[in-house]
């Protein structure tokens, strides 16, 4: 079976890698520490290069469907985070301003610096969208590209 490079899947993969690199740049260079939900949102983008690799090495439609499913999950995670930021619903108890998850002993222990990053605070936005908002939108775009890759694969197989 010939190996076919699907350009839509490649573009979606490059987009995921770019989002992941952007998250690390914001963290390491600009000092924006991620909250728990931010960390969770990184995992789907980290999985995508592996899915793309398998789509080339073991060509099958399942990889393109998997890529779209992973990106839909990414958009749902990010959308949930947007809802927490906008106070549409409660976030995780461990990263909301209403409950920091710190015990009294931890608060009174001054030997170590405690840094709790709140999931319900928007620390950066562009065009009125937070990082989680951009992740929601772009993950849906990448999911669409994976669906297009699936369709392209189907056309090649016919």
Notes on the structure:
By secondary structure, this protein is mainly alpha-helical. It has a single domain (7-157), classed as DsbB-like (Bromodomain-like, Up-down Bundle), CATH 1.20.1550. 64% of the residues lie in helices and 3% in strands. The protein has 5 helices and 2 strands. A two-stranded antiparallel ribbon has the order 1-2. A hairpin with a 2-residue loop joins strand 1 (125-126) and strand 2. The longest helix has 27 residues, at 131-157. The chain is elongated and about 65 Å long. The chain starts with 6 loop residues before the first helix and ends with a helix. The mean pLDDT is 86.
In short:
The chain has helices spanning 7-28, 36-57, 61-85, 104-108, 131-157; strands spanning 125-126, 129-130. The chain has 158 residues and is mostly helical.
Order of the strands making up the biggest sheet? 1-2
Q: Kindly report the average pLDDT value.
A: 86
- The CATH topology annotation reads as Bromodomain-like
CATH architecture, by name, is Up-down Bundle
For the largest beta-sheet, the strand count, sense and barrel status come to: 2 strands, antiparallel
CATH homologous superfamily placement: DsbB-like
Helicity, as a percent range: 55-70%
Give the beta-strand count: 2
Could you name the CATH class? Answer: Mainly Alpha
Distance between the termini: 14 Å
Task: Compute the number of helices.
Answer: 5
Sequence stretches where pLDDT stays below 50 over 5 or more residues: none
Question: Helix-strand pattern, N to C?
Answer: HHHHEEH
